[in-house]
Amino acid sequence: MPYDVLQGLSESPDLEFEYADTDKWAAELSELYSYTEGPEFALNRKCFEEEFQTQVSDKKWTELDEAQHRAHTMRLLDGLEVIAREKRLKVARAILYMAQGTFAECSSEAEVQHWMRYNIFLLLDVGTFTALLELLNMEIDNSAACSSAVRKPAISLADSTDLRVLLNIMYLMVETIQQEDPADRPEWKIIRETFRAELGSPLFNNEPISVMLFGMVTKFCSGHAPHFPMKKVLLLLWKSILFTLGGFEQLQSIKVRKREDLGLPPLPEDCIRVIRSMRAASPPASASDLIEQQQKRARREHKVALIKQDNLDAFNEKDPYKADDSREDEDDSDDNDNSIEAESFPLERDEVMPPPIPHPSSERVSFPKGLPWAPKVRYCSVRPDNNAAFVMTFEIALLKILLAAAPTSKAKTDSINILADVLPEEMPTTVLQSMKLGVDVNRHKEIIVKAISAILLLLLKHFKLNHIYQFEYMAQHLVFANCIPLILKFFNQNIMSYITAKNGISVLDFPHCVVHELPELTAESLEAGDNNQFCWRNLFSCINLLRILNKLTKWKHSRTMMLVVFKSAPILKRALKVKQAMMQLYVLKLLKVQTKYLGRQWRKSNMKTMSAIYQKVRHRLNDDWAYGNDLDARPWDFQAEECALRANIERFNSRRYDKSHSNPDFLPVDNCLQSVLGQRVDLPEDFQMNYDLWLEREVFSKPISWEELLQ
Q: Where found in the cell (predicted)?
């Protein structure tokens, strides 16, 4: 659909998008692989069959019993410990084929997914994941591979083969095991919970797997390991965090439980559920739309004047707003044919014509029954959690990758290369191959943006729930690393085109490509893309980035002024053209916080947006958001606010985590009587010499009320 059509007020369709932690399982599996990796599916199968036929020659994998499956899997696991790299890679590919569902013996995608679950739970049960982590550590520390990659002028898919195979298996295991199925065996549920606990524990090289993956991100961005397949690293990092810490539903449950433990009143609503029930609003009018509306309004005024002069009685008998008046319907079609417009922006009415007479049978104008949110009062107190465990790593590295993957970024000589795991060894020689690679590269970047936005949002939400200063520490690092202008730069594009982009070739997606025969690709089919109304991952990324921006700027006047200084209002207003309720809500929140700084003229010219903010965003009873008379808006307080926050964060970190320079005033007090009496205390020599005198003066000569002491 062309953009000029989508830009119209009434033609823009509602996007049937349901926000969740992840997309459907099949989509999350397919995004692991680039289209350039397609030939490796057959190579994995070949490696498995060569290993399998040497042990079991007369049967297929799907024909064996569970004991035989386990025995062969153990033999493959032993093969991962051989010294020869080529032999080890061959065995790893055979294991990857198992994790891919032994697809050559399956006739449908559902059957592939069934065998994936069975094989992956079997692999985990025999200890495959631990062995893979040891191999991954070896590859991370492989200085020869890093030196070779640094010296190469151009890095391709072949430079990351070993890493990609290992990361593919590990991602498939994490992604599959975290998917709960009612038909799962009881022992599988136990395996899942055990695996969840192990992933979040420092069992692998004395650190959780997420810390090791963050280390890979930092090493890649520093330029010491340009061959790391960063898309796969980020996807595995995202799914590991999601599996160990929990998604949005788990966050809500933890929040409810913590409020109960602290004696706080229950939450008035579940934000995600409220947002899912909201309807999208028609976007604000563009400049061309406003000019056209003014012209139509002038024509209506002229008609009314003529009617009043010629035949006032006839005008009184005929209501120009009635649906059977075809002339007025034609003139008003662009302004009033969308009931959501009337519902969402009641203040944007034609002031020249008299108000319409209500008709019981008419559904032309429908008013909302009430605001979707319960109002709140903001309190400034913080109640710390004394049992929080603090882990903080490398946001700057993530933002560097996000900048390189953003569609608005231009290629620079000093920017990092995020295409190492998508570019083939030999560059395309035909137009069709070039088009296919172009789709693959764009898809690759979109998946990276999706993973990074999800990682940052999950960490911010979990840190905020764990301890407010952990959240503030991460948020301030992001702000100092220019996260706010980076996100605004991301949205300073044709956002509707980004959300409706068709960078995908469905027939090449896994597991479709390994079950069905591939049709012949043509330039026309690549240009046409799929028939989806929007791209799920791109809309998901946009909402995540808007939520991150909201979390960074909420109740922070200095950061709100950054939105104003970087002229975010027109950028955000363009994002309202996407008719999806959740995305519009977070855009309106960002506009609301800066409304008081934009001036009276802006508010007067954007009454439709102001009306949408009033109807869709939660209101604080003590927040004078629509007027510019807030005392907290003084410019000389902005720098002091950030400095004071940073001082509080550093004081918290020093008291909590700096063991070498611990302040004795902040050390925990030992209240155990036996422990205190059992401590050895070195007494000075003069005290030991006069010990008898001390006993007489301090103990024997003083009366002791034993009853009070015992009480």
A: Cytoplasm
**Global model pTM greater than 0.70:** yes
Digit-coded pLDDT (tens) for 272-319: 777 777 777 777 665 555 565 666 666 665 554 444 444 434 333 333
> With contact defined as beta carbons under 8 Å apart, do 92 and 133 qualify?
no
pLDDT-based confidence at 331, cuts 50/70/90?
very low
C-beta neighbour count of 499 within 10 angstroms: 25
CA 103/CA 100 separation, integer angstroms: 7
- Residue 207 is given by DSSP the state B
The CA–CA distances, whole Å, from 112 to 35, 102, 236, 516, 685 equal 19, 7, 21, 12, 81
Half-sphere exposure (Cβ direction) of 249: Cα atoms closer than 13 Å: 5
Cα–Cα dist 247/453, whole Å? 14
CA distances from 677 to 408, 668, 681, 685, 711 (A): 68, 17, 9, 21, 20
Contact present, 92 and 40 (Cβ < 8 Å): no
Share of the chain above pLDDT 70, in %: 79
Helix (H) or strand (E) holding 84: none
- What is the sign of the dihedral through the CA atoms of 358, 362, 366 and 370? positive
**Chain center to CA of 238:** 9
Mean pLDDT of 323-342: 32
Question: SS3 for 253-315, per residue?
Answer: HHHHHHHHHCCCCCCCCCHHHHHHHCCCCCCCCCHHHHHHHHHHHHHHHHHHHHHHHHCHHHH
- The residue type of 602 is W
CA neighbor of 451 nearest in space, from 142, 691, 231, 274: 231
- What's the Cα-to-Cα distance from 402 to each of 152, 229, 230, 415, 441, rounded to whole Å? 24, 15, 11, 11, 15
3-state DSSP of 612-625: HHHHHCCCECCCCC
- Single-letter residue type at 9: L
Q: Is 184 exposed, middle or buried (0-12, 13-18, 19+ CB in 10 A)?
A: middle
As a whole number of angstroms, the distance between CA 285 and CA 607 comes to 11
